[in-house]
């Protein structure tokens, strides 16, 4: 196993954190400014502190981000131990204790949560997938594609880039095919969307995208108001 | 009344508060709650409208009257109580607190009440006497409210239906529902608006005004509202985007107009989180940016007039002065 220097290890841990997204905003915690601290020492111990826009941000999402951050960093080569903590949140104490003891969500909030979070996560992948479809289709429309042409397109017909990457990521989360020759626009169950159902489908996808983007913008602003601009790990 | 460019606007602020969040009336969670509100206030208000925190914790009756009616253009303001007694032992903003002010200024305020289905049968009687005592036509429901071990409830709960039946019986027709961070059950979508669908279907003769238009679940709200004609959008939280995030505001109002139409959207400042003066001024001046007009159209003075006051006036039977043009609101509703 290659030995990393501390700064290499930190860079690897940062890359790992950048794969952790806020489930409802569909953006990485590293870009949202949610990582307040990332430090490593020579023994391979990594310490992460996360922070959120408000004291009452939904605890289920907070829990998902903290646990995802823990798993992502723990999987990095050369990391010997991980501590992830959530700051300034009404459920910080329970979440931090639950993560440290490697308890699941339902155990962490005994009596308040009746099962694990998979269903919730799935719901937000589904929304993020719709929003990603809207983004890709808006770009296609702006380059001259008419609505009726979209139904026949395949993934390889879309210009590579951030919008396509986001779509592919969500398809992969949902277990939908991602090969280049696959249809571009599919329903949640993988069925290709037909020309006649596409307008209504995309109109709703647009509302989802507006909702996610507005919310993300609001959350970024609240985080800035709460902590100022300068105090973020990079 | 607000007048600009020869157009007159009758203003009904559909969501105002008179709260007490002083240190002596709050616990640890109450502090977190009012800090959270202050974050909303500071982040979305123009800098000249940001208050010092001490004033935000507790403002005076004079502040309220001055801000809404002397400089804020508001003709009628609707009090929406928020009890939160688990966070604020003396109540954050109860019906009785609001009633004292409303009694002194009966022509200015519309008083709303509240119920909590977890109060059971006994609460049902108390709710009835509250409604009769204050002749209420509307209520504000806060499904995320903590109560002992419970961290919230749903409009689809059987006991909630009993209370809604009581509303129907007593003529309480306007049901404002706050959809915000529910804490329980933790593993579900905390902002889920699906219980509105259930209640709106079961009680087609009641109006359900969803505060914050379902944000951050705008699309789920729109999906319900398009099927349920008795579901309305309250613009609290969304409308202050107009200042710092005008393009997002354009998209939110554009989506609401697409899915709901202009008779089911209600202006609300959520005072004292935001001040109605700058919101009214900026909303009247606002237009959908040109590059979005192909998609969303434009906002006409008639649309703005309905949103700013005529829609709420129709829900609450508020008399609108003759000098304000009334484009067939009653026919549309």
Structure description:
Chain B: GO terms for molecular function: hydrolase activity. Chain B: It comes from Haloechinothrix alba. Chain B: Pfam families: Amidohydro_2. Chain B: This is Amidohydrolase-related domain-containing protein. The complex is a heterodimer of chains A (about 230) and B (about 325). With about 230 residues, chain A is mainly alpha-helical. Chain A starts with 5 loop residues before the first helix and ends in a 7-residue tail after the last helix. In chain A, α1 (about 5-15) runs antiparallel to α3 (about 60-75), α6 (about 120-140) runs antiparallel to α8 (about 160-175) and α6 crosses α9 (about 200-225). Chain A is built from nine helices and five strands. Chain B has about 325 residues and is of the alpha/beta class. Chain B has one domain: Metal-dependent hydrolases (TIM Barrel, Alpha-Beta Barrel), CATH 3.20.20. Helices cover about 45% and strands about 10% of the residues of chain B. Chain B is built from 14 helices and ten strands. Chain B has helices at about 30-45, 55, 60-70, 95-105, 120-135, 160-170, 195-200, 220-225, 240-245, 245-260, 275-285, 290-295, 300-315, 330; strands at about 1-5, 5-10, 10-15, 75-80, 110, 140, 175-180, 205-210, 230-235, 265.
CATH architecture of chain B: Alpha-Beta Barrel
CATH superfamily of chain B: Metal-dependent hydrolases
From the 3D structure, determine the CATH topology of chain B. TIM Barrel
Strand order of the main beta sheet of chain A, please? 3-4-5
Overall outline of chain A: elongated
Instruction: Please state the structural category of chain A.
Output: mainly alpha
Task: Report the β-strand fraction of chain A as a percent range.
Answer: 5-15%
Helical coverage of chain B, percent range: 40-55%
- Number of self-contained structural domains of chain A: 2
Protein name (chain A): Metal-sulfur cluster biosynthetic enzyme
Organism (chain A): Haloechinothrix alba
Pfam family, one (chain A): FeS_assembly_P
Domain MIP18 family-like (chain A): 11-84
């Amino acid at each position: 196993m290659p030995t990393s220097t501390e700064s290499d290890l930190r860079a690897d841990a940062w890359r790992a954190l950048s794969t952790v997204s806020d489930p409802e905003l569909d953006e990485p915690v590293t870009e949202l400014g949610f990582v307040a601290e990332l430090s490593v020492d020579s023994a391979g111990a990594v310490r992460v502190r996360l922070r959120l826009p408000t004291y009452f941000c939904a605890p289920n999402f907070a829990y998902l981000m903290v646990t995802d951050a823990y798993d992502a960093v723990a999987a990095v080569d050369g990391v010997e131990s991980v501590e992830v903590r959530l700051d300034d949140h009404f459920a910080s104490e329970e979440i931090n204790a639950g993560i440290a003891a490697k308890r699941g969500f339902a155990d962490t909030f005994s009596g308040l949560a009746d099962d694990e979070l998979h269903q919730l996560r799935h719901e937000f992948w589904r929304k993020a997938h719709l929003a990603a479809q809207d983004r890709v289709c808006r770009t296609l429309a702006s380059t001259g594609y008419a609505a009726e042409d979209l139904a026949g397109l395949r993934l390889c017909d879309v210009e590579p880039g951030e919008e396509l990457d986001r779509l592919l990521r969500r398809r992969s989360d949902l277990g939908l095919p991602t090969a280049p020759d696959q249809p571009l626009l599919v329903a949640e169950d993988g069925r290709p969307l037909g020309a006649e159902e596409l307008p209504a489908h995309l109109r709703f996808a647009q509302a989802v995208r507006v909702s996610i983007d507005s919310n993300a913008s609001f959350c970024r602003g609240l985080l800035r108001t709460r902590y100022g601009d300068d105090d973020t790990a990079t | 009344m607000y007048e600009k460019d020869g157009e007159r606007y009758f203003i009904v602020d559909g969501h105002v508060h008179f709260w007490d969040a002083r240190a002596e009336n709050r616990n640890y969670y109450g502090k977190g709650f009012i800090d959270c509100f202050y974050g909303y206030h500071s982040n979305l208000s123009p800098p000249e409208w940001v208050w010092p925190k001490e004033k935000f914790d507790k403002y005076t009756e004079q502040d309220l009257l001055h801000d809404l009616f002397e400089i804020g253009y508001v003709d009628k303001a609707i009090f929406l109580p928020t009890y939160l007694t688990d966070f604020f032992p003396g109540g954050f903003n109860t019906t009785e607190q609001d009633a004292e002010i409303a009694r002194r200024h009966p022509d200015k305020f519309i008083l709303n009440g509240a119920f909590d289905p977890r109060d059971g049968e006994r609460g049902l009687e108390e709710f009835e006497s509250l409604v009769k005592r204050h002749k209420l036509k509307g209520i504000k429901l806060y499904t995320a409210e903590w109560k002992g071990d419970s961290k919230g409830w749903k409009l689809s709960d059987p006991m909630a239906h009993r209370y809604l039946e009581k509303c129907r019986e007593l003529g309480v027709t306007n049901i404002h529902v706050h959809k915000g961070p529910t804490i329980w059950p933790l593993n579900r979508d905390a902002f889920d608006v699906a219980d509105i669908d259930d209640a709106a279907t079961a009680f087609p003769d009641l109006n359900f005004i969803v505060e914050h238009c379902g944000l951050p679940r705008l699309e789920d709200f729109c999906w319900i509202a398009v099927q349920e004609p008795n579901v309305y959008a309250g613009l609290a939280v969304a409308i202050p985007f107009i200042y710092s995030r005008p393009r997002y505001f354009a998209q939110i109002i554009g989506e609401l107009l697409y899915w709901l139409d202009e008779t089911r959207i209600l202006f609300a400042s959520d005072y004292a989180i935001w001040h109605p003066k700058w919101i009214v001024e900026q909303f009247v001046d606002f237009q959908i940016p040109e590059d979005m007009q192909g998609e969303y159209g434009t906002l006409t003075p008639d649309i703005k007039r309905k949103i700013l006051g005529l829609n709420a006036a129709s829900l609450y039977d508020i008399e609108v002065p003759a000098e304000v043009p009334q484009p067939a609101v009653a026919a549309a509703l």
